Amino acid sequence: MAVDFKYLLQGKHDCQCGRDHNCELKNIVLGSGALKELPALAGGFNSILFVADNNTDALCGESVRILLGKKCRKELIYQTTGVLVPNEKAIAELDAMVTPEIDLIVGLGSGVINDLCKYASFTHHIDYFIIATAPSMDGYASCHAAMIIGGMKVTYSAHMAHSIIADVDILRTAPEEMLRSGYGDILGKYSALNDWKLGHVMYDEYFCQNVYDLIYETTKGVEPIGRSLMQRDPEAVRLLMEAILVVGVAMSWIGNSRPASGSEHHLSHFYEVLGLLNDTPYFLHGVNVAYSTVETELMREEILALSSPAASVNSMSRETEIRRVYGSAAEGVIELQNKAGWYEQDMLTLIQNKWDAIRDTLHEVPDSKWLIHCIESVGLSMDKYYAEYSDGERMDAKRWAKDLKDRYTFLWIWFMLLR
Predict the structure, then answer these.
(1) CB-based contact 67:36 (threshold 8 Å)
(2) Other beta carbons less than 10 A from residue 353's beta carbon
(3) Which of 48, 175, 237, 333 is 20 to 30 A removed from 417 (C-alpha atoms)?
(4) Are strands 127-132 and 104-109 parallel, antiparallel or unpaired?
(5) Chain centroid to CA 150: how far?
């Protein structure tokens, strides 16, 4: 049964968690032929800037121009032979196009185009639409924009899209790797949700059972579609995109990405950051998340195999190791953790005092064998992961990916007990 997005966008009030949940996103149109709704959605706007790259423009850019008609006053088509990078140059190109008469940006693309349009529209105080071209990640409905600034990935607070158009006829033409990426990003919610609940168990962090259940059941619904997704079955593509949008709305209900981004995203970000710093290859975000979901579950299983918690005897120098791993970015990473104060916590005593509750929580993630089965259904294998990232890189990720964020995740427990 399809999700009622009109109902979800109304938010949830008088929730048992004690908070009201709201969503500023106005419209979600998902289905075959959804693109035809563009003129009606844009009816209240008069001067539109159309943004795409040469790949997405070739896909259906002309249809977008025809549907917008004379309201399409300007356009920016990024020219790229590889991956479009949302860096200072790309931001400046878009900023220059947003003149005072522009009252709406319409983006055609996936992650990068969405982030660029989101960031520019927020800084210029106007609305934006995104026409999704791939079910590749859960950021369409997010209020954050991930940019590459000074060669590093930086996430900025922004605003949500005014409207999201997700036409299944367009989405099912996405490259296979983008389909895998979206599936992996959703599968990673098992890990993220577990980290959220763990934060509640350990530090009484705010937690909403309704949001947890919504995302958990959505993730469970995507589990079995892997093979049909790779065959571009329209219903499988629709289900994946639906899940992506549900997660985005759920994040807006909470006001941040906590229910959807945890230790698995920290590992994924680690590989992306090292790739940018060292100019080395790395997988698409959601593919990294898929592999990192398995990796973090293997780490949970290591912890669950312990009879009792005791501190690791490894006496590494944190700052020395951070400088070795992060090079030119190290000082910012060190400063972030000094400010967060996690290293000053008596975490071991807390782990010992809450050991039974921790174990109960960790058991809630599907086991690694099942997760491997899931990623294999979309053509991913752990052998490819091990071939892409060396033993040393993967160990560095397990130890030091947590330092990229100030969010508490399972990685801290693993670090304390098994580093």
Answers:
(1) yes
(2) 12
(3) 333
(4) parallel
(5) 21
Cβ contact 293:399 at 8 Å: no
CA nearest neighbour of 312 among 347, 341, 344, 342: 347
CB-count burial class (<10 Å; 0-12, 13-18, 19+) for 157: exposed
DSSP run (H or E) holding 416: helix 410-418
Give the ranges where 98-188 is alpha helix by DSSP (H): 111-123, 168-171, 176-187
pLDDT digits (tens, 9 = 90+) for 215-252: 999 999 999 999 999 999 999 999 999 999 999 999 99
In 3D, which of 161, 170, 104, 163 has the Cα closest to residue 136?
170
- Cβ-based burial of 313 (10 A; exposed 0-12, middle 13-18, buried ≥19): exposed
**Which residues 6+ apart lie within 8 Å of 82 measured at CB?**
none
Q: Say if CB 110 and CB 137 are below 8 A apart.
A: yes
38 closest CA partner among 112, 92, 106, 102: 106
All domains of the chain in start order, with CATH: 5-174 (3.40.50.1970), 179-207+257-418 (1.20.1090)
Q: What is the DSSP letter of 367?
A: P
Nearest in space to 404 (alpha carbons), one of 210, 261, 211: 261
Query: Which tokens in the block code for residue 252?
Result: 């807006």
Q: Are strands 163-167 and 152-157 parallel, antiparallel or unpaired?
A: unpaired
pLDDT tens digit string along 124-147? 999 999 999 999 998 899 888 988
